[in-house]
Amino acid sequence: MAYEAFSYYYDILMQDVPYHKWISKTKQYLPQGSTILDVGCGTGTISILLAKEGYHVTGIDLSEEMLSLAYEKTLTEGLGIHYVQQDMSRLEGFSDFDGAVIYVDSLNYLKNDREVFQTFRHLYESIKEGGILIFDVHSLFKVTEIFQDYLFADTNPDLTYIWHVCEGKYPYSIEHELTFFKREGDRYERFEETHYQRTFAIEEYVQWLEDIGFKILEISADFLDEAPTEESERIIVVAQK
């Protein structure tokens, strides 16, 4: 999905996200100096943080707008990160990486189980024997309970936005309806975007991974290093080739 105008305000919306928790999870399983595919890298925040920790990072994203911002941020930081525009479910041209990560529920942007399975299969082919795959997804509880008719609004001097989440067309899917008001002098310019996400049961993710050949190393929730409960919101899965 191309983020279009949304890409330019993504970092504002995500400024309170605890990115350090994803970095800590990476460091649990992949030593510094490892080569990593950061799939669904967005504006490059996690790619940049990983590079600063000594990882050799290649960022993958479908959105040209997001990658353009990632590249600009990387240049500003003086880092060397390779960015590639690709659909994660059609990933090609990569091999022998030490690991791959799909963070901040990027996997939930895939439309169906076939695309998720294809993504896992392509990543299996992209990492070396013994390589690590780490990803996180929304739990069923979060999609069916937390996100149902969720409404949030925020404002700052240059941007005001309204974020509404409603039930999607498919099982365990949601639609994010985003309305932005960008300040232009004494007036505001309004624009809207809709984003779709879908998740699946933990058991389904595990089955697809094992069918491909992955071994499950960890299933935890909410960065607590504990097994998921019925009210967990973010599921973290670590698998090994």
From TrEMBL:
One of its GO terms (molecular function) is methyltransferase activity. GO terms for biological process: methylation. Residues 36-131 form the Methyltransferase domain. It holds the Pfam family Methyltransf_25. The keyword Transferase applies. It comes from the Bacteria. Keywords: Methyltransferase, Transferase. CDD domains: AdoMet_MTases. PANTHER family: TRANS-ACONITATE 2-METHYLTRANSFERASE, TRANS-ACONITATE 2-METHYLTRANSFERASE-RELATED. This is Methyltransferase YqeM. The gene is yqeM.
